[in-house]
């Protein structure tokens, strides 16, 4: 982000020349070393034999008498006279910079690490030291960031501890000099100087490695220029380039401002806009920075056709169902990103890309039509899944499913599921069409067979149901959700007859409607830390057994979450439910209301709260109320929780909030990428005969 010209350019070249000269004149440290005494390669006798014989006949010089030493010294002592060389013709200096006088040598003085006193240590000892940074306070106070804190976090001197010798300390100091210069340059101090030195204190304590900082001028913008073609609106680029004259040149702020422009242009109809290389001209004398940003705007576009290519999960027609924009609307990259997210949320792709492409075709209001090319790479459509859980009074429970997510294109899934547990067994087949006719709408048609054998009842049940919903997914959490549907139930159950005081099997035929609406303001579907949720469920039903009995099941749920610290969350929930329009004996036991268990009131067994028959077996009720308060503490991928649950079920149609039972406990959490795994241990307060002292619950996801 810096351009250097003129005088400063000469300085840079001179520094390079001096650096090269320093390398050329560096002493050859290895010259003083003596070669080792090695054995001769060949013996003298072998050498004499290898030399060919030479006689005076071959070389007349060999026959002459040797010159004496005195004669040789007289010859070399005579003065040598040479004719002076003729001066070379003058040549004009064409390079203006070469003609200019050289800057003083002080300008290029190297800044080595200065050692004060003897600073050596034995080879087997470590050298202790401490670090001081001087002269940074003024710049740190003027900066928007914590310069000293950033240095301490990244410093090699601070991170690596004691050194083996002062050479290693000097190397670390050199790295920290560069680090300080980079940190200062990022804040606008481009000419900062940092001089390292090592001092030995008088008290023989650890060495002091001092880095003396001279920040110099802080460069500020003197002008901000955008080179671009006109846009609509006219100030689209400049209003999003958050830089102002007289502000310091801060690298992070420059990058953020340019990123904002790069986002704003495609969000306002310019999908092919490109930012060029910025140019910042620094004036060393005044500290002024002239900033220029070239931008290639490209055509203003509107949505054209959607085309699909690659290994397709479905065609372009269904892609248009997922899009929230229409052909002819002004291009907005946020809507394209939204479409990409919707495609990812289908779970059908290994890779997916949505790219704009130019067509050259005119659009409305002088725009150009921009087609979207959806590049698909369909993933494997079959999925096998399994979940498991355990609860006191409920026993073990394992569910598994096989799914073909795109058997009936587009997005028509076939799901075959099974359930095996201590008290429950079942199997089912479901057809599910996602994004059915419109985005985020799901249609389901399900059939299942189920057997349950609890202390409250034993039931063999068949169910057919159809449902239309607008639900959240782990990828796409929605604020408003709703569902409505119809179901037919046939069930044979054992039920207690209070008039005869015996249990007998009864067969019920049940037809009903389902309506549910929810409002979710939390920050996570599986592990919320703030916000609240509200849900209302209404199920008008009619039971056919020795006559037709209509009634309505109603349930209201609310939960809230508050983060008191980075790793501490306080959560609470309430539930109120009621069955209106029928007596308890007219309602099938499996459709009554029960309290107790891991999803209800922890500390008690499954369905163990509420009215009981003469055999002390739960009979279920027509109303209930529940509440819970939980404190969650997380550390890394683990967490603990403490909780208090309270609740009760009643035979009356409305809860009277009497005889409330309380359970307390602690829990452990293991956080995974699909949500927390939960283990809770709880005990009832004022335990009654027959109730367990310890109740254990294992599941996936938070309790609420």
TrEMBL record:
GO terms for cellular component: outer membrane. Keywords: Membrane, Signal, Transmembrane, Transmembrane beta strand. InterPro entries: Bac_surfAg_D15, D15-like. Residues 26-62 are annotated as: Disordered. The keyword Protein transport does not apply. It comes from the Bacteria. It is found in: Membrane. Residues 1-30 form the signal peptide. Pfam families: Omp85 (PF01103). Residues 390-704 form the Bacterial surface antigen (D15) domain. PANTHER family: BACTERIAL SURFACE ANTIGEN (D15) DOMAIN-CONTAINING PROTEIN, SORTING AND ASSEMBLY MACHINERY SAMM50 PROTEIN FAMILY MEMBER. This is BamA/TamA family outer membrane protein.
């Amino acid at each position: 982000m810096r351009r250097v010209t003129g005088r400063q350019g000469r300085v840079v070249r001179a520094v390079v020349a001096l650096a090269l000269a320093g390398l050329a004149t560096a002493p050859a440290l290895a010259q003083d070393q003596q070669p080792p005494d090695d054995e001769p390669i060949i013996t003298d006798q072998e050498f004499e034999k290898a030399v060919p014989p030479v006689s005076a006949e071959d070389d007349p010089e060999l026959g002459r008498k040797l010159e004496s030493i005195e004669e040789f010294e007289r010859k070399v002592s005579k003065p040598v006279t040479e004719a002076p060389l003729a001066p070379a013709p003058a040549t004009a200096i064409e390079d203006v910079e070469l003609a200019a006088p050289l800057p003083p040598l002080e300008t290029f003085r190297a800044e080595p690490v200065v050692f004060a006193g003897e600073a050596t240590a034995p080879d087997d000892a470590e050298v202790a030291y401490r670090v001081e940074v001087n002269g940074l306070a003024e710049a740190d106070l003027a900066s928007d960031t914590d310069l000293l804190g950033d240095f301490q976090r990244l410093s090699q001197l601070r991170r690596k501890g004691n050194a083996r010798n002062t050479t290693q300390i000097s190397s670390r100091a050199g790295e920290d000099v560069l680090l300080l210069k980079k940190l200062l340059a990022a804040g606008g101090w481009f000419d900062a100087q940092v001089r390292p030195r090592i001092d030995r204190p008088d008290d023989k304590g650890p060495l002091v490695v001092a880095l003396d900082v001279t920040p110099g001028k802080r460069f500020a913008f003197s002008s901000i220029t955008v080179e671009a073609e006109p846009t609509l609106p006219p100030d689209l680029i400049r209003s999003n380039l958050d830089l102002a004259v007289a502000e310091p040149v801060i690298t992070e702020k420059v990058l953020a401002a340019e990123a904002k422009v790069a986002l704003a242009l495609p969000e306002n109809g310019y999908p092919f806009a490109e930012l060029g290389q910025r140019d910042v001209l620094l004036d060393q004398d005044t500290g002024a920075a002239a900033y220029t940003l070239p931008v290639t705007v490209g055509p203003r576009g509107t949505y054209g056709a959607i085309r699909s290519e690659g290994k397709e999960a479905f065609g372009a027609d269904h892609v248009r169902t997922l899009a929230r924009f229409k052909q002819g609307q002004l291009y907005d990259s946020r809507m394209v990103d939204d479409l990409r997210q919707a495609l990812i949320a289908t779970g059908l792709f290994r890779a997916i890309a949505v790219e704009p492409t130019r067509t050259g075709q005119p659009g409305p209001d002088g725009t150009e039509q921009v087609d979207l090319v959806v590049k698909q790479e369909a993933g494997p459509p079959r999925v096998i899944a399994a979940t498991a859980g355990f609860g006191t009074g409920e026993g073990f429970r394992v569910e598994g499913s096989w799914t073909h997510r795109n058997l009936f294109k587009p997005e028509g899934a076939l799901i075959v599921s099974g359930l095996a547990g201590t008290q429950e067994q079942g199997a089912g087949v479901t057809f599910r069409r996602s994004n059915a006719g419109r985005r985020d709408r799901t249609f389901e048609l399900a059939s299942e067979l189920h057997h349950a054998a609890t202390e409250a009842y034993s039931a063999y049940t068949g169910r057919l149901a159809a449902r239309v919903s607008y639900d959240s997914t782990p990828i796409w959490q929605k604020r408003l959700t709703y569902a409505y549907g119809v179901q037919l139930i046939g069930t044979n159950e054992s039920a207690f007859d209070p008039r005869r005081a015996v249990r007998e099997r009864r067969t019920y035929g049940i037809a009903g409607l389902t309506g549910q609406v929810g409002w979710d303001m939390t920050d996570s579907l599986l592990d919320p830390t703030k916000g609240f949720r509200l849900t209302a469920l209404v199920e008008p039903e009619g039971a056919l057994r020795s006559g037709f009995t209509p009634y309505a099941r109603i349930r209201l749920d609310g939960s809230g979450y508050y983060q008191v610290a980075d790793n501490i969350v306080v959560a609470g929930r309430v539930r109120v439910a009621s069955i209106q329009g029928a007596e308890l004996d007219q309602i099938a036991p499996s459709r009554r209301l029960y309290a107790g268990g891991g999803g209800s009131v922890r500390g008690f067994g499954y369905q163990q709260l509420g009215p009981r028959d003469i055999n002390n077996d739960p009979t279920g009720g027509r109303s209930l109320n529940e509440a819970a308060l939980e404190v969650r503490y997380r550390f890394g991928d683990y967490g603990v929780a403490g909780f208090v649950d309270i609740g009760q079920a009643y035979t009356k149609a409305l809860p009277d909030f009497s005889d409330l039972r309380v359970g307390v406990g602690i829990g452990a959490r293991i956080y995974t990428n699909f949500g927390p795994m939960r283990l809770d241990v709880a005990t009832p307060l004022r335990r009654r005969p027959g109730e367990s002292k310890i109740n254990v619950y294992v599941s996936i996801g938070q309790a609420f």
